[in-house]
Amino acid sequence: MSAVKISVIVPIYRIEKYLAQCVDSLIQQSFLDFELILVDDGSPDNCPKICDDYAAKDKRVKVIHKKNGGLLSARKAGLEAAVGKYISYVDGDDWVDNFYLDTLYKLAEANNADLAVTGHFREFNGKIETIKPKSAGIYNETEIISDIIPNAIYNGEFCEHGMSTYVWNKLFKKELLEQVLYDVPNDVIMGEDAAITYSYLAICKKLVISKIPLYYYRQRHDSIVKSIENPKVEYYRLGLLMNILKTKLSPIMDETTLDEQITYYLYSQILVRSGGLINNEVKNNLFNPFLETKNGSKVVVYSSGSFGQHILSTNLKTNYFKVIKWVDVDFHDLKIGKSSVEPISAVSNDDIDFLIIATINPSIHKLIKTELKLMGIDKDKIVNIDTDLIRIKSLIADLGFDKDFIFKKELAV
Questions:
Q1: I need a labelling partner for 194 at 20 to 30 A (CA). Which of 236, 345, 353, 397 fits?
Q2: Whole-structure pTM over 0.70, yes or no?
């Protein structure tokens, strides 16, 4: 084997059903000068044996068995063991194109780039969607600071990232990644990718973005958390993420822009995890972000993804809305309370007051709204989300976040 150019790190926990497809896709790469580091994060299933079996068959495979410590701790353990010039992260329930490493390596080397970014595929119940970055091209340090970073977290439309948070459609330089990864607290278990990607972007001198999709991201229902047992623990963890972003980006961004970006990002994450309705103890009310809707409104919820599931779960507890139907174009068998996912054709104007599209991404919202209008849904019944910055800042302060986005730890106990 020639010198290792890329270290591919795969964190592994409870994914034995998917692991072989992931590892096989990496072993079969057209690019040969890499090592594959499988990090068994104390997985209680058959994953440890699967990892060892691959290592016994292929000398490029290294295995780390460690006590369970979460995704970030696994990524750190992998980085500590890595010897490649570049680092690639692959999630153990996903898989990659045969030319994944070859393309990433050529992008980085041809452009002397500190970070290479590509497109990806989203696989869901057998359906595959292609997702390509909008801002393809080569960017120097000045352009990264002036064009990329001010739009990275929030691109001006709520709440769409100018650059995807994911670490798995990117190639990092090991020497730079070491400067940011170890600073991210292991307690950050929501938005770990954002903490790594945006912190890393802040120290990049050269960036290349390609539209070529090479990574297959598997969207799994069994990986989505359906209810929040303790919102304040989640707020504390989200505060750690937002604070690390503020700390890492403040040297290169003006404070007003950065605070606006992080405020919208924090709000979007709270919205998804709370199911939209947020308990404001200071004002002793439920903050309802769905404009025009009221307590008792007859609604259809569109989307059975994370946000949609949280809306249904939250409504079981609050009974705020009368959920008439739950629909998705990705129709599949899923039930929360008495609601089961139905196909989009099940919606009728006459049955409802409003339709809530459960997404925080405006591009997706617009596409779905267009499809719903084609199906005869009254556009005035399709709900928008409240994005008034003054109201959002007031809510975030009421919840217990300070000006640096840290959530008061004593509240999380």
A1: 397
A2: yes
